[in-house]
Amino acid sequence: MPIIGLDNFLAVTVFVLGAIVGSFLNVVIYRVPREISVNSPRRSFCPSCDDRIPFYHNIPLLSWILLRGKCRKCPAVIPFRYWFIEFLTAVLFLCAWLRFVESPAVVPGVMILIAILICATFIDFDFQIIPDCLTKGGIVVGCLVALAVPSAVVIVMDCEIYSQGGMNPRVMALIWAIIGAASGYGLIFSVVVLGKIAFGRKSLKIPDNGQWRVVEGRENPVLETGSEKTAFEDLFFVGSERVEIECEHAEVNGRSFKAACMTIRHDRLQVDGEEILISEWKTLSGRATSMRYYREAMGFGDVKFMALIGAFLGWKAVLFTIFIASVSGTAVSLPAKILRKDSPLTRIPFGPYLALGAITWIFFGPSLLDWYFGLMRITGL
C-alpha cells in the first residue's frame, strides 16, 4: 500500500486550507461591502430565499459541484464565481507554499496578503470600492509580519537587512515595511492629485433654456444638451466618474422632481436620495441650472491599497506592481476604446490590476528584476 510522502501531504494540506479560506473569503466579499457582519449570521445563507446552509452542504469545492450550482431550497443559481474563488485561493496558496517551501516562516504572511488581494479584487469588481478594513488593517498586518519574520524582507521584498549602529534586524525589517507602505501611498496619491489637476471638475455646456435629456444610443446611452451629444462611453471612461446636475425640475420614468440635485454614473443615477439602475431608465430629462463633470484618475481606495501592498512587499514591489498594473490595464481596455465598443472590460477598476501586479511580484518579481538588470549590463558592455 503506497504511503504518501511528507512533501505531498503538506502540499495537499495547503491546497485544502486554501479552499477553506476561499470559502470564508466568499463570505467577506459578499457581506463586507453590504455592511453585514461576517460573524452574524454565523452560517452562510442563500441570498434569494435566506435559507441557512448546513455544514454538509458548505464543503469547499465539492458542495457547489454536488448541488450542481443551485440552492437546495429554491431554484436560485449559485454563481460559478463562488467555486472559482475557492479554487483560485487554493491554487495560489499551494503555489505560495511551493515557491517559499525552503523558507516556511515566510508562507503565512504571503497567504494573508493573497487572501486580502482576492477580497479586494472581487469587491472592487462589484462595488468600485476597496473597504478600509482590508487596506488599513492590512497595512498594520504587513508591518507586524515584517517585525515577526525579518527574513520576509530579504526573501519577499528583495531588500537587505544589515546591522547598522547595532540596530535590531526586526526593527530594520519594520522600517522597510513602513518605507514600502509610504512609497506605495505616496506614488498613487501623487497620481490622484495630478489626475485631479488634469481632469478634476469642469462645467458642461448647457443651452440657454437648460434643457437636457438622456436618450438611447446605438450601444450605450447618450447625454444630449442642446446640439451637443456625448456618449456615456466618453464620459465614463474609468467608471468612477460622475455628472452632477442641479435641476429646476427633472423627469425620471414619468415622475417629476422639482429643485432636484441629480447624480448620474455609468450604471445608475441618484435623485432625492433614491437610486435607480440604468437598466430601469425609460425617460430621463430636465431643465438644468448647472451641470458639472467629475473625473479622477483613480480613487483613494487605490492609494491605501497600494500602501498595503508596499507594507507586505516593499518599495521595489511598489514600482513593479504599478508598472504591471498599468501595462495590463492598458492591454485589456485599449482595444475596446479604439474600436469604440462599450465592454465590461473597460469598466474594470484599477484595484484588480494592482492585485495582479502584486501577485506577479510574489512569484516572479525579484527574478524578473535580476533578468532585466542583467540585460542592461550586457547591453552596456
Descriptive report:
It is a single chain. The chain has helices at residues 6-31, 62-66, 80-99, 107-127, 132-148, 151-155, 169-198, 232-235, 300-313, 315-339, 350-380; strands at 200-203, 211-215, 222-225, 228-231, 242-252, 255-264, 268-271, 274-277, 284-295. It folds into three domains: 1-99, no CATH class; 106-186 and 301-381, no CATH class; 200-295, no CATH class. It is an alpha+beta fold. The protein is globular, with a radius of gyration of 25 Å. The termini are far apart. Strands 1, 2, 3, 4, 5, 6, 7, 8 and 9 form a nine-stranded antiparallel sheet that branches. It is 52% helix and 15% strand.
Number of spatially distinct domains = 3
Residue fraction in strands: 15-25%
What is the 3D shape?
globular
- End-to-end separation in angstroms reads 59 Å
The helix/strand class is alpha+beta
Helix and strand pattern: HHHHHHHEEEEHEEEEEHHH
Please bin the fraction of helical residues: 40-55%
Sheet with the most strands, sense and barrel status:
9 strands, antiparallel
Q: Compute the number of helices.
A: 11
List the topology elements.
Blueprint: H1 6-31, H2 62-66, H3 80-99, H4 107-127, H5 132-148, H6 151-155, H7 169-198, E1 200-203, E2 211-215, E3 222-225, E4 228-231, H8 232-235, E5 242-252, E6 255-264, E7 268-271, E8 274-277, E9 284-295, H9 300-313, H10 315-339, H11 350-380
Antiparallel strand pairs: 1-9, 2-3, 2-9, 3-4, 5-6, 5-9, 6-7, 7-8
Helix pairs in contact: 1-3, 1-4, 3-4, 4-5, 4-11, 5-7, 5-9, 7-9, 7-10, 9-10, 9-11, 10-11
